[in-house]
Amino acid sequence: MKFNWKVVLLFVLILALIVPVYSKAVETGKELPKSPELQDDNSSTLKNVNTPKNLKASPLTIPANSTIADLFPDEGMAKTVANQLGRTENNNFQTPTKTDWKVDDVVTEVELNRMWYLTSVATIGSIEGIQYLPNLYNVQLQFDDQCKDLSPFLKAPNGYPQLYRLNINNGNISDISPLTELSAPTLKYIDLAGNNISDLSLFKKLPNKLPSLEEISVERNNISDVSPLADFASTKIKVFDLDDNHITDLSSLTNNKMPNLQRLYVRSQSFYVETPVVTSSKYEFSLQPSVFGITKPVKITATNPKATIDPITSKITYSAEVMAKRPKYSSNRVSGVSGVTYSWDEDIPFNGSNNLVEYNGTFYKPLTYVEPPQVVSYNSGLTYELGTPLTEQQFLNDLNVITDQPTTITTNFDKVLKDVNSVGFYPVTIKASNIEGNTEFTTSVLIKYKPPVITADAEYTYLVGDKVNATQFRADVNATLTGEGTLRDDFIYKVRLNTAGDYVVTLSSPKSGYYKQDAIPVTVIVHVKELLELQIPDEFRMDIDANADSVPISDKKQTLTCYGSSGKAELEVIDRRTVRQGWTITGAMTPFTNSGGDILQTSLKYQSKSPSSSPIYLNTTNQPIEKKQSAVTDPKYDSTIVNLEDSLSMEIEPNDALVNDSYESKITWTLEDAPRP
């Protein structure tokens, strides 16, 4: 039986043309209508592709013994190429000699050059290696969000002179710049549906490198601004598909540069408002949408739930009855979101012809419904003192109620706490309210007595041997307690009346009931003094003048006098005895010695101011220097001051000093309780 092989070949070629179109319909759910002219061109191109003289794409040189996986490192891409090598349409429409290609099979340049069709059969993450397929005619790749880089297309030295259709769907592509540099003079169809394209500014470059381009699809991307298409200039482009994006304004296409554009699809737009509007479920809710067509605003045609639409302004009003149900919406992106939707659907004349733009879409407006306020925190356990002036505002400030939203706070303060005149616990009710309802809680306020106040003198003096009890002490220091409480002290535990010293006594009044408070403690310094006391300076110096510098070496005898180190150098005798029978001060000193152990051979001379007294040279033996006979002067105590600066002196012999050194002596003063004869 004889066959007409030319007829069979034509049937196969036509079938190959139909298959890619059907495949697109399955993937996208719709097929872009094709004009008869485009279909005729397609057939013509197929015939040209079959002409061997046109298969001159200057392919890249493939290293010897390269496997498919070597050239196509992405596993999905390698599997796709292996699958396609065994297909009839990639073997000059003849039965291939090898049909079971594997990714680790060695492949030749000739075999790759025969590939006209490339349809993905696995998830592709990278198209690296596509540069080795320069004679591609029809490319249909599904990326499943894995691939976003198209730059390998640019590695083909002379581009793709036979490329007719390029479908790259469902990837993560946002950068189309490689396509603007792609050399594909016969490319008519670009389908970039299901990617992540948002910026159309580079699309204006496509006609420069792709002069035959007639149809573009960017449906199901992330496009909201079509204004860059105002600069897209092409007399070839016939179909532009912008379905399933987020476009709400077509005004920039009023004076477009696509005079032969026949079909512009702007259907199924979706606009998700990000920030929810806060509203009440008890009142009607209105909004003013903004959708613009090519020359004028587009009217809202439907809402969910049902609402009133102003026929002129398209203002939408959802009634209070509708809002009371707290409407929600769902879509293919979200589910069960509180809010409303509103849609538009209008066919708009385009390019001054009978062609209509199908323009429709939906706004998704999330709402946050006001709820009755919830109390987040407040200061519990407030306490006030009886008799303290208190207003409701001050009470609220102290309570510091924090709620989860703006609210009005009210209380029954006036009924419970205003003009309160007794101690105790008082329950106050607080109500936080808004238009949706209120939340109540009760807090207990404690009214206490004011703390008592203690007053007393800051210090008091007793003598060694005095007999004083706590009652006498409080009387001596004028201790008083004002308010509720009992005055207490620790006098008997702190003060030792038989030992001279300074003691700290604390006056207190601990609370004796739940509604009472502790008084602030007060301290009193109690001085216990000796009956007969001698006060002496810690140190003094002997010098030729008031300047505290070294005594110079001199070849003459020098007289030094006494100078106080801080203040005056004095001896003071305080006699607090009831019967004052007099006293005696004696003095003794060690020799003056320097740091090297040298001794200064001189003594301090003490000259009393008493009449007929003789000078006394101090040495290591106690010698009386001052005395006082029995006398009664001050009824409390008798004080006698001896000025050492007027009484002490010393002489040093010529050259009896060392430069830059000092001499020290220890002076012992002794007070005896009676005058010596």
What report would you give on this structure?
- Residues 375-447, 452-528 form the Internalin I Ig-like domain.
- Residues 30-52 are annotated as: Disordered.
- InterPro entries: Dev_Immune_Receptor, Ig-like_fold, InlI_Ig-like, Leu-rich_rpt, Leu-rich_rpt_4, LRR_dom_sf.
- The longest helix has 24 residues, at 5-28.
- It is built from 13 helices and 40 strands.
- Mean pLDDT is 87; it is low at 1-56.
- The protein is α/β, with parallel strands linked by helices and 677 residues long.
- Strands 1, 2, 3, 4, 5, 6, 7, 8, 10, 13, 14 and 15 form a twelve-stranded mixed beta sheet that branches.
- The protein starts with a helix and ends in a 5-residue tail after the last strand.
- The protein folds into five domains: 5-269, Ribonuclease Inhibitor (Leucine-rich repeat, LRR (right-handed beta-alpha superhelix)), CATH 3.80.10.10; 273-369, Sandwich (Immunoglobulin-like), CATH 2.60.40; 375-448, Immunoglobulins (Immunoglobulin-like, Sandwich), CATH 2.60.40.10; 453-529, Immunoglobulin-like (Sandwich); 533-672, Sandwich (Immunoglobulin-like).
